[in-house]
């Protein structure tokens, strides 16, 4: 697969949550305003095909996140019903080459994580004794790897899941949160979500203590109903998605909670619904936090939360579609804000947003896994 460098929410779907303060302003990197007032599927397919075959120079500094960017490209093509543009066997073999493997069962207890590396750059060779002292397996890269494999129809039952799951438990902290790799990293809801998604896709929950993870998630719900990435932090669209989707994947909440007895739910559903609905701004787009600009990606992060809760029917879909079209580039893809150049991260979440809006020509979305329903069900 000819992918060469890349970027997402801090560059990883792992990072499921973009730092808006470091993003360029809407006036920066501007391109001519899009004159397209319809979803131009063909341009988007061409944009992703270009990303699949040759990554632009801008993304070469993102080589460390190659698997994440590959996920956006390949899953994006599947959303656009254009998966025939990729060599599925070649993609699967390429992804499998990034898995870290212990040399023995004893090595599984050395505290390292035997998931997937994000790129060749983080895939250090063994020393002269054959010991991989610098294994940099990463939870977010592992989520992306498994998601790509499911998307191309690879049978995950044949993968070395024991190494992934046994070593993943080493990443869970006493408070129930997860680090993304075995040393020197932060802990927050992004990586709880990655761990839950990995267990769900592998159909084996031995990789985490679900009760501890649930308690951490519940401690992240704020007074206003949303979820911060850590207990006591500001409610945020990315953190809220990670919390709700994780609870749904772990079996602690049901789909369409609003049609059921929400008083028995472990989360405050009415307050969460109110917070989520308030994120649709007057321009029709969704913001990640109060008093922030609308941003393409939050049409997924908040939209998916509402879909899981059963509240998506309450949003102004016409206004949202209109906002998203202002972020659609004449070159294909979507930008963060109107009148900016497109990027692969916001393009992917633009496609997921249009899938939630049931745009013709797109595959339906599995909101809790962030990929197509077909891939999530494993029926490709």
TrEMBL record:
InterPro entries: GGTase_I_beta, PGGT1B-like, Prenyltrans, Terpenoid_cyclase/PrenylTrfase. Residues 39-366 form the Prenyltransferase alpha-alpha toroid domain. Its cofactor is Zn(2+); Mg(2+). Keywords: Magnesium, Metal-binding, Prenyltransferase, Repeat, Transferase, Zinc. It holds the Pfam family Prenyltrans. Residues 1-35 are annotated as: Disordered. Residues 11-21 have a biased composition (Acidic residues). It is an enzyme of class 2 (transferase). GO terms for molecular function: CAAX-protein geranylgeranyltransferase activity; metal ion binding. Residues 22-34 have a biased composition (Low complexity). The keyword Translocase does not apply. The keyword Zinc applies. One of its GO terms (cellular component) is CAAX-protein geranylgeranyltransferase complex. Its EC number is 2.5.1.59. Belongs to the protein prenyltransferase subunit beta family. This is Geranylgeranyl transferase type-1 subunit beta. The lineage of its organism: Eukaryota, Viridiplantae, Streptophyta, Embryophyta, Tracheophyta.
């Amino acid at each position: 697969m000819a992918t060469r460098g890349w970027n997402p929410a801090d560059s990883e779907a792992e990072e499921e949550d973009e730092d808006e303060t470091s993003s360029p302003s809407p006036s920066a990197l501007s391109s001519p305003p899009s004159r397209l007032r319809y979803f131009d599927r063909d341009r988007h397919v061409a944009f992703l095909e270009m990303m699949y075959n040759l990554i632009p120079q801008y993304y070469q500094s993102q080589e460390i996140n190659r698997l994440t960017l590959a996920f956006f490209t390949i899953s994006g093509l599947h959303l656009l019903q254009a998966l025939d543009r990729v060599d599925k066997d070649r993609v699967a073999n390429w992804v499998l080459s990034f898995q870290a493997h212990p040399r023995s069962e004893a090595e599984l207890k050395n505290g390292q994580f035997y998931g997937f590396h994000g790129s060749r750059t983080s895939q250090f060779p063994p020393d002269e004794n054959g010991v991989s002292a610098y294994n940099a397996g990463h939870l977010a890269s592992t989520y992306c790897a498994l998601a790509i494999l499911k998307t191309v129809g690879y049978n995950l039952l044949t993968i070395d899941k024991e190494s992934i799951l046994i070593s993943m438990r080493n990443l869970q902290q006493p408070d129930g949160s997860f680090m993304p790799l075995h040393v020197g990293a932060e802990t927050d809801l992004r990586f709880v979500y990655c761990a839950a998604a990995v267990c769900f896709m592998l159909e084996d929950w031995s990789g985490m203590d679900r009760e501890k993870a649930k308690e951490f998630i519940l401690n992240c719900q704020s007074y206003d109903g949303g979820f911060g990435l850590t207990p006591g932090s500001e409610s945020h669209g990315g953190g809220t998605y990670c919390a709700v989707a994780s609870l749904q994947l772990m079996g602690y909440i049901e789909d369409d909670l609003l049609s059921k007895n929400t008083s028995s739910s472990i989360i405050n559903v009415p307050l969460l619904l109110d917070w989520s609905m308030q994120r649709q701004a007057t321009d029709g787009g969704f913001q990640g936090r109060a008093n922030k600009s609308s941003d393409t990606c939050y049409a997924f992060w908040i939209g998916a939360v509402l879909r899981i809760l059963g509240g998506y029917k309450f949003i102004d879909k016409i206004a949202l579609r209109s906002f998203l079209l202002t972020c659609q580039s004449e070159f294909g893809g979507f930008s963060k804000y109107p009148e900016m150049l497109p990027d692969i991260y916001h393009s992917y979440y633009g496609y997921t947003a249009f899938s939630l809006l049931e745009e013709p020509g797109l595959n339906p979305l599995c909101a809790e896994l962030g990929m197509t329903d077909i891939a999530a069900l494993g029926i490709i």
